Amino acid sequence: MIVEVNLLDGSPLQLEISSKATGEDLIEAITKSINLLEKDYFGVTHYDKKDQTRIWVQNDRKLNKQMKEPLKCWFQVRFYPPDPAQLSEDITRYQLCLQIQQDVKSGKLPCSFVTHALLGAYLVQSELGDYDPVDHGLSTDYIRDFDFAPNQSEDLLERIMEVHKTLKGQSPAEAELHYLDNAKKLAMYGVSLHPARDSEGVDIMLGVCSSGILVYRDRLRINRFAWPKIIKISYKRNGFYIKIRPGEFEHFESTVGFKLENHKAAKRLWKICVEHHSFFRLLSPDTKEKPKFPRFGSRFRYSGRTQHQAKKNISMADRTNPAFDRSGSHGRGNNTTNLSSQSMQGISRGGSPRGNTSPTVNDLENPANKRHTLAHPLPNEVHKELEEAQNKRNLKNNDAGNIPRNFDMSQSYPQDSVTGPSQNMHNDNKVPKPAFTEQKPVVPQPRARTRGGGGGGALGPALPPQVPSSPILSPNNTPLPASSQAQP
Description:
11 helices; alpha+beta; 16% strand
């Protein structure tokens, strides 16, 4: 049978596969056609006409059991790596850049004006190379066909052009590495959002990411459940429940519940949580065993490789960093510029042929670096222009809606990192309860305030850094086997 696949660069791909092929066979065929070895971070989605949404194709099930004619699907990033610099190959980072650019354009990944300018400049440097006034001209026409933001303006194009002029000497691989280094610090990076309601019937959003489960209301994060603090995740009808460990001054576990649209939405969210927990926290996935006695609930288990296994597999692979072409996929016009890749391994060994003008991977991993890292310091004039443009946009928004001047309208979500403290949220009103709680009687003791940050998240202290934890995830309140250890 013929399957039509839309790749991340927008190009279509038609594959002829067996009628008995599974989702894993389809991903294997796609990654083989684009020469992608680190395939465990990627997946395939298809459109469900009944639910009017895109859902992930399960790797261990046959395609004809999941998709209907015509077979059309989308190749996407399924698990966003917390540190893209740890990816081994440039082509993997390039595919991740394509996915993040789609998230930025669609509004899934909100950015401030300054962040849009920085990401856009790295994008242009990666696709067009160094700024040349002879080839590119003195106006912004050479980047007008690019799609940088949901509602980009001429002011944004001018700022991108100014920053692009300062990035001279960076190779495409270096520019993409810096692009990812800035994108990973955004608050909504790698967060899969799902609409839900709390106990009071207020609309909220539940987000699943590599570090745990997040709760948003009115575009502000109001709670966070880190994986080490979660004991069990379950669903029943349209309810989604999280059982958490007791806090510092608590002696009993508590269960937090949310209401989703229907039973399918709750089960879909539960599956995504199981997959993210298994991929980022376990050393190896749980094995599927046929039960001796009939059991109720879903028997779904994550069937792919974990991040630990993926890193081990790529380290044992005997292949050099492949060369590939960048075909102007970020633009929305007929941009046919092709730039070949230069291996970051070669840069780290022999140095950049244009001079050592960019930070190394170790420099990017340094937590002391600033939030938005450029290859080299920008001139003071460019800094002032970016700050003035940001202030003008804030003043316009304040005057238009009578919004307090200390409210930052340049970002849709708080720009603190996922592990940042919850006190940084711009919330002047009273924060509502995130969900209804079923809790056993507790010995009267002073209750600790909820604090974010650290490995323990918003519900208690973090576990020791080297002690592995293995939260138990189960369908319909059925515990999973405790055979798999959790990755620290």
